[in-house]
Amino acid sequence: MPNLISPAESERRTQARLRAQVPIQLRISGKSPTHPATLIDLSWGGALCQTSTALQISDQPLWLLLPWTLGETIEIETTLLRQKNLENGRHLLAMRFLRLSLSNQTRLEKLLGQLQAGDSRGGTYNAPSLVATLEVLIQTLDEWRWALSAIAKGRLRISAPATFTPGQSLGLQFNGVPARARLRLRARVLACEAEPIEGMGAGHSDTLTLEFEHPLNILRQWAEWLLGQVPPNSQTSSLPAAYQPQTVRPEVIPARVVLTQHERSALEISFPEALDYLMTAWGDVSAFELVFRQLIFGDTSIAGTWTLESWEELQLLQDVHDQAYGVSDARRSQLKVGRDVH
């Protein structure tokens, strides 16, 4: 078991803590008797509750049983971080979530969504995101195989455009080329290493080493099932280029931050397909210029429909790409005087 790290201050700020007054049950381990408690607040990564009796702190995991529909429960393996004696004789317990099954994770997210909707009290409410979420975009069948192989072992290395704190819990959303490359998991950051971006001066991306917060046997079962849906290399000769086998396995898989609606840019809200199209050519000067011209002048459903905000963001993306990766000779000769291309 990895070293347990208390929740970082950044995680407390980024995870919505939702108020609740719900009777729950606690179980110290195995099939031992449960202890009644009252849930005070709940978040993606942990919970705060009150009990009438103090619990003995030990190395054994503490199981949190939240009520669910039809008499069922959401069972979460936790670790007890703190226990505080209150003046009224009750005890306040702070728990951090360690592991839960995929089905219990789905239930937990639905419960958090219900609590968050109730927390708004019907007024103007800018709801914070439940958790920082990264999207891992799978571009080839080989990438999907490699990702599933890593998932089956309980860990994954990805590159992210933002900094995260070791010990912080994240949502991990897999999307991509294979039709079945759709998977949502929870993970904890074990390590974060800054890597400079070539041509971007002080710019950098972070390489994250993640450990999944799900039982390893469940991850293996899911990974094996999903791997069974991927056609073997011998059957990929007639598939599109994105499905063709790759010879070099990447050390890390790139990921991007999934933003909430009020955090998204004009392009993400109104023209997400254009942004995805540009990202397919990011880093390749000739391909990026071709895609950019196609979006602006080509026969597409969005050409000529840009809003002022989205047009400004397009120009900003072009400027960033020019600065980071350069400009082709053909386009350089066409640029008007006054445009800084160096």
Task: Give the helices and strands, then pairings.
Blueprint: H1 9-14, E1 18-27, E2 34-42, E3 46-51, E4 62-67, E5 73-85, E6 91-99, H2 102-119, E7 133-138, H3 141-153, E8 155-160, E9 169-176, E10 183-196, E11 204-212, H4 216-228, E12 253-258, H5 266-270, H6 272-279, H7 285-297, H8 308-325, H9 329-332
Parallel strand pairs: 7-9, 8-12
Antiparallel strand pairs: 1-2, 1-4, 2-3, 3-6, 4-5, 5-6, 7-12, 8-11, 9-10, 10-11
Helix pairs in contact: 3-4, 6-7
Summary?
With 342 residues, the protein is α+β, with helices and mostly antiparallel strands. It is built from nine helices and twelve strands. The longest helix has 18 residues, at 102-119.
Q: What does this protein look like?
A:
InterPro entries: PilZ_domain. This is PilZ domain-containing protein. By secondary structure, the chain is an alpha+beta fold. The chain contains nine helices and twelve strands. A six-stranded antiparallel beta barrel has the order 1-2-3-6-5-4. Strand 10 (183-196) and strand 11 form a beta hairpin. Helix 3 packs antiparallel against helix 4 (216-228) and helix 6 runs antiparallel to helix 7 (285-297). The protein is elongated and about 80 Å long. The termini are far apart.
